[in-house]
Amino acid sequence: MNDATQTIETAPEAGDPAAHAEAVVMRAGTSFFWAMRRLPERRRRVMFAIYAFCREVDDIADDPGEETQKRAALANWRGEIERLYGGQPRSMTGRALLPAVDAFDLAKEDFIAVVAGMEMDAGDRVRIADMDELTLYCDRVACAVGRLSTRVFGLDADIGTRLALAQGLALQLTNILRDVVEDAARNRLYLPADMLAEHGITDTDDLTRVLAHPRLHQVCEVLAGVARNKFIEAQDLVGQCDPKAVRPAVMMLEVYRRILSRLDRRGWQDLAQPVSLSKLSKLWVAFRYGVL
Questions:
Q1: C-alpha to C-alpha distance for 150 and 163, rounded to whole angstroms
Q2: Which has more confidence, 46 or 11?
Q3: Whole-prediction pTM value?
């Protein structure tokens, strides 16, 4: 377990919180770094801090360690969020977020939702019962981040909330469809059990058999259709916003829409065939939608 997760419950971490958050973003190598860099400094610092928070709790959930340790570390983050909204965060990332809580009216519930999403991933086995549970999962790990981000972007509250929902679902469903085989290797299956059952896949204990089922591609096609509709909805909402304000959101939209398009072209019969965007493609998107 990363020692940094333990310091949250002991003493405040020393150092420059803003520099720490930016360093986390840079180490992650995300192509969205340059889109965030284009934001005004005050907003940029907050977006770096939000990204750092998401990166740190996601790393806990994906840690190969024991489930009890992961849940303890995530519980520490729940406590840190309470301290953040009490004005006394102890972690470097919490301190980076502190100036933004009031300045951008960031909702505590959204930070808690992200942690709750990581708790859904923290177990040794992940299964999703139905579309309602899948939507809840996507809301926690993706849409909640979008709600925090749209507040920082300064969007109208109604449009911002709707954009966060549509884009969060589009992006997370694309992630799920791209990573079906990789997730199965970790005993994770995010395709809803009721949808699988409708296509004759009723035993989800043995994921090798699930992956080999001749009708699995039909389930993927259904979810891909949902994702495509959410991309269209998100694009329509983006068109109602100040283009400069939503540059990072547009970049993410364009990257993931291209990934889904490549998944569609590959087809859903051979899920083991990897699909990704090249570094050059991501850089082009970053330049086209994050700089111009």
A1: 8
A2: 46
A3: 0.91
* Residue whose C-alpha is closest to residue 141's, from 118, 108, 123, 160: 118
Q: Which residues contact 290 (CB under 8 A, 6 or more apart)?
A: 32, 34, 35, 38, 247, 248, 250, 251
Domain formed by 125-277+287-292, architecture: Orthogonal Bundle (1.10)
pLDDT recorded at residue 271: 96
Residue with tokens 């942690």: 115
50: burial class by Cβ within 10 Å (0-12, 13-18, 19+)?
A: buried
105: region left, alpha or beta (phi > 0 left; psi from -120 to 50 alpha)? left
The predicted-structure confidence for 138-176, as pLDDT tens digits, reads as follows 999 999 999 999 999 999 999 999 999 999 999 999 999
In this predicted model, what pLDDT tens digit does every residue of 75-115 receive, in sequence order?
Answer: 999 999 999 999 999 999 999 999 999 999 999 999 999 99
Q: Where are the domains of the chain?
A: 1-123, 125-277+287-292
Highest mean pLDDT among 38-52, 166-180, 245-259: 166-180
Q: DSSP for 160-228?
A: HHHHHHHHHHHHHHHHHHHTHHHHHTTTEE-S-HHHHHHTT----S-HHHHHH-TTHHHHHHHHHHHHH
In CATH, 1-123 is 1.10.600.10: yes
**Tokens, residue 213:** 């089922």
Q: Per the structure block, which two tokens stand in for 262?
A: 């490549």
Alpha-carbon distance of 18 to 49, in angstroms, equals 7
Fold match flag (1-123 vs 125-277+287-292): yes
